[in-house]
Amino acid sequence: MKVWRDSNETTGCPFFGVHIYSDSSVVIRQLKCWKGYSGDHQKLLFGFYDHGHQDYPGWALRNYIAFLSLRWKIEKVQFLCYRERRGEPDLEKSLIGEASFAAPHGWDGSDYVPEIIGWEGEKAGDRKKEKILKPIDLDSLNPASQDEEKQVMHLKLMGWRHPSLVLNKLRSARCLVLGAGALGCEVSRLLMTWGVRKLTVVDGGCVAIPDIVKQSLYVDNDCGVPRATAIVPHLKERCPAVEVEGIQMEIPVPGNPVSKTKMSSVLDNCKRLQALVASSDVVFLLTDTWESRWFPTLLCANENKIAITAASGYDSYLVMRHGAGPGHNLSTEDALGHQRLGCCFCNDSTSFVNLVLNETVALPGLTSIASGKAVELFARILHHEEGDTCSRRYCWYGH
Ligand SMILES: [Zn+2]
């Protein structure tokens, strides 16, 4: 058997004949030769490589016996289920047995179609039955897509209760997350939980030691690494199917003096941010200052993108969606004749002051609450038939 397995010519033949002679010598031959040697051996076993490890033969034996019956009219077969363990013959697990098989009537007729596994359907035509090969979704065998199936199972279960849930909308939504701090970490993670698979995260800072306890995705090793770089592998670890891009970039802020030498790089950042907003479906404004939300707010209004602001102060937080952009006529009414909603700068300036003063020191639980509400708000707007122009009644998830 070892010679058979080691030879280039025969190692790839999973079916073979084992000829046992009266002097106990054994010769293994190719199956097609069995008739030529049928007279001079004492015993003939039809062998095959059996990948099973159970106490009974593997499935391949069924096809093997059917083939022997159909091709050579052998009704009684002595078989050898040859098994290996770590590349070595495992004769303890290998099985020898005998099977009788009476071919059904008409089995060898040219128009006979047996009931076999892997084929389905029956097409009538010219008194002939036709079976169609059952298509196998090979992608379902891919470990990555199996993982993805498991990761959206909770959403599918939700979909049974709430049929309006459209997973494809969430999967294809391109989300731009501005800021990868405490809010950015939570929002990115929750978006993935909602089935979002296209994320772009923009941040200009680096992970510092005090951040690790507050910003949920980072670990000790990330200290000193740009947040936009550090967040990517952590999101991928949790959800391998997510397409995430981390962009290290300072968001241009009005009023910040720009030296002549930095002028061109700031302008480049402006153009880059404009392109990012234009290519996204929703923008989350989660930076650590109000000023840095101003320019993205203008871009979102100009591009008519869903924009959601989340911020936490010492003991307060704010989550709001910006209204749809003004369009071409700069009207205060939106495309559906509703009063347009404003942005976070023209709606609630008093709470801004509070938040600006207290932004870096907030009650720990508020970050999770604000992030959670921001993401639920996004999912709510995405599923509303009027999208970003839906009225303010739909500002909050659950209302
Ligand atoms: Zn505004």
From TrEMBL:
GO cellular component terms attached to this protein's record: phagophore assembly site
Pfam assignment, any one: ATG7_N
Domain Ubiquitin-like modifier-activating enzyme Atg7 N-terminal span(s) in chain numbering: 3-126
Residue ranges annotated for the THIF-type NAD/FAD binding fold domain, each copy included: 167-389
GO BP: autophagosome assembly; autophagy of mitochondrion; cellular response to nitrogen starvation; piecemeal microautophagy of the nucleus; protein modification by small protein conjugation
Alphabetical list of InterPro entries matching this protein: Atg7_N (IPR032197), Atg7_N_2 (IPR042523), ThiF/MoeB/HesA (IPR045886), ThiF_NAD_FAD-bd (IPR000594), Ubiquitin-activating_enz (IPR035985)
Single GO molecular function: Atg12 activating enzyme activity
The name this protein goes by in its record: THIF-type NAD/FAD binding fold domain-containing protein
Protein's organism: Aegilops tauschii subsp. strangulata (Goatgrass)
